[in-house]
Specification:
This protein has 219 residues and is an alpha/beta fold. It has helices at 15-22, 45-52, 69-80, 85-98, 114-126, 144-158, 171-177, 195-199, and strands spanning 4-8, 34-35, 38-39, 55-58, 132-136, 163-168, 180-185, 188-194. The protein contains eight helices and eight strands. Helix 3 (69-80) packs across helix 4 (85-98) and helix 3 runs parallel beside helix 5.
């Protein structure tokens, strides 16, 4: 808790699949997934749902419900049924404000740009106050100003009770955000550790410039 893990690797390395496995959306073909020391394979559906409700995931290409922005963001709260309508609306409005979309509440979510949908999806996740937030290329479709705002938001979340895993191939973003870094190549974690140890001190550049002490990245 309270930190950001940057999951880096080239396109096709398995970053999205790993996030889906962590979020219990897929079953591993081999190996184990442990939650607080317990093997999750074979859990009854009720336990899996309870575990998933402690997590939030934002996909690279989010899907919007056919409804307003406010209804999209508050949907998870509605499903859980723990708040009255007024409380759900207040929380959803605060989440939209945090991603820079105040005033969008009544708009049709499916008419917005890809970058705006990405921010709505993030608001939809953080409104549930997850213990673990999983993000797949969260700023890929955003302009620099919006991306910077999202980076700041994620740093604020990680400063509290939320652990954040960000899958990205953007080394500069990983430098800005991550406390720790894991390198994924060909479906395997090939290196992990503190950001400064994994990324080294070389100037920001393309993926080909990344280096790991004692390890040669094959791309």
């Amino acid at each position: 808790k309270g930190e950001i893990l940057g999951l880096i690797g080239p396109t096709g390395s398995g970053k999205t699949t790993l996030l889906r496995l962590i979020d219990l959306l897929e079953e591993p073909g081999h190996g184990s997934i442990l939650l607080e020391g317990r093997e999750v394979s074979g859990w009854p559906e009720k336990e899996r749902i309870a575990a998933r409700r402690r997590m939030g995931m934002v996909f690279q290409k989010p899907v919007m419900f056919k409804s307003t922005v406010l209804e999209n963001v508050s949907f998870g709260l509605l499903v859980r049924g723990k708040e009255e309508a007024k409380q759900r609306e207040e929380k959803a409005r605060r989440a939209l404000q945090s991603v820079g979309l105040s005033g969008y509440e009544g708009r049709d979510a499916n008419t917005l740009s890809g970058g705006e949908m990405q921010r709505i999806a993030l608001a939809r996740a953080i409104v549930l106050e997850p213990e673990l937030l999983l993000l797949d290329e969260p700023t890929a479709n955003l302009d620099p100003r919006s991306a910077s705002a999202i980076d700041s938001l994620l740093q604020g979340l990680a400063g509290g009770r939320t652990a954040v895993i960000v899958a990205t191939h953007n080394m500069a973003q990983c430098r800005r955000l991550a406390d720790r870094v894991a390198v994924l190549v060909g479906g395997r974690i090939t290196a992990s550790g503190k950001r400064e140890d994994i990324l080294g001190q070389e100037e920001e550049g393309g993926i080909s410039g990344w280096k790991v002490p004692g390890f040669h990245l094959p791309w």
